[in-house]
């Protein structure tokens, strides 16, 4: 399976926007953009509509306030004026992004074909929730996923596909999944599903794994698989794979037969620096420090 490329950046009908910076990635057929806008003083607006369905989450703002509007001249009723809100714009619907006296906004934008949601969410999808726009949604799950995706967009090295797909799936679930899905996850994967998933993961641990591929192998949507896998193993698929890769790397470090740079490549990390950073976050020590501590 090859990686999809982000669609070209399109910024429509800007008024008062001085400069736009952006970085893009693509996971699950969803183009994810981290966008920073530098604005002129006063009132600023632009058209958020697109031929694709769009979700935008305001991560940060400085100065005045910003909001989405159905009517450019009519403020949106609200009781909060801080950053952290999400906007859902159905394909082809005109919704305006409006701000007053803001110097900078930083947001995450996701552009996708709404027809992809059943594949990602399966029976967890609440179809009624994709038919109407959302103007101001403050949700801790959404902002948490959005901040992690923004961080991934800024990475200069290729990101982990399983991680990116897991984050986009989780964000879509927070926005469009039924609120009753938690009740369906008590028993986890069936024995054959768990065995098949773990065997596949063990044999392909150093590869750029795909959540979509994993879920398809056991006949589930991504959100169903991720939820049931966590019940069965105690960890989400990405975290389970990361822990397994670190444990395998530790075995290689104990043998002392390979230099650390070769272990990084062997375990599928982009380079030694990436491997070291992940190893330190997981174990609290660099690979070299951990290796020396085991020899004492």
Explain what you see.
The mean pLDDT is 89. The protein has helices at residues 117-121, 140-153, 161-176, 191-203, 211-217, 222-233, 237-255, 260-266, 272-283, 287-294; strands spanning 17-27, 30-39, 43-47, 53-69, 85-89, 96-112, 134-138. It is built from ten helices and seven strands. It starts with 16 loop residues before the first strand and ends with a helix. Helix 5 (211-217) packs across helix 6 and helix 8 packs across helix 9 (272-283). The protein has 296 residues and is an alpha+beta fold. The protein folds into three domains: 17-171, Jelly Rolls, CATH 2.60.120; 180-234, no CATH class; 240-294, Orthogonal Bundle (Arc Repressor Mutant, subunit A). Strands 1, 2, 3, 4, 5, 6 and 7 form a seven-stranded antiparallel beta sheet that branches. It is globular, with a radius of gyration of 21 Å.
